[in-house]
Amino acid sequence: MPNIENTPASIKNNDGKTTVGQMQTTWFDQGDRLKRALQRLGFFWLLAAITIFIPIAHFVLVPGFLIAGPVVSYITYQMCWVRDHLSGTCPTCDEKMMIKLENKDTLPKWTYCPACNAPLHITQPDNHLDN
Ligand SMILES: [Zn+2]
């Protein structure tokens, strides 16, 4: 079972005003990582099988998907955690916001408020030192 962890994150705007939000990270155990890796391998090899029927393009697509399958599945297997999203309140416009994070996002991170477009600086809160 993937384990969802919420960690506090400090959201600061350019005026130095700070709010505290929650950053959600999903952790995968050994079984989840294997399952996700096999799903990706199956998906790419299925694409390879489907693209056999596309004339001319199959000379590129079929070997491409056959090679991409193990590569993507290896990269997926190496992933122990992925970032999901950051939720909190914008320090500039006080709107509730949810920002989608990239898989490998780390703090500190610069982003923009989806409501007012203010630049935001996401950092670990000062009292959160165990990461
Ligand atoms: Zn805002």
Helix content: 25-40%
Q: What summary fits the major beta sheet?
A: 6 strands, antiparallel
Give the N-to-C terminal Cα separation: 22 Å
Q: For the residues shown, what is the average pLDDT?
A: 91
Strand content: 25-35%
Structural domains: how many = 2
Shape: elongated
Spatially, the strands of the biggest sheet line up as 4-3-2-1-6-5
Number of strands: 6
Order of helices and strands: EEHHEEEE
Query: What is the helix tally?
Result: 2
How are the elements arranged and paired?
Elements: E1 3-13, E2 18-27, H1 30-51, H2 58-78, E3 81-89, E4 96-100, E5 109-112, E6 119-123
Antiparallel strand pairs: 1-2, 1-6, 2-3, 3-4, 5-6
Outline of the structure:
33% of the residues lie in helices and 34% in strands. The chain has 131 residues and is of the alpha+beta class. Helix 1 packs antiparallel against helix 2.
Describe the structure.
With 131 residues, the protein is an alpha+beta fold. The protein has two domains: 62 residues, no CATH class; 49 residues, no CATH class. The protein is built from two helices and six strands; from the N terminus they run ββααββββ. A six-stranded antiparallel β-sheet has the order 4-3-2-1-6-5, with no helix packed on it. A hairpin with a 6-residue loop joins strand 5 and strand 6. It is elongated. The protein starts with a strand and ends in an 8-residue tail after the last strand. Bound molecules: zinc ion. Zinc ion binds next to loops.
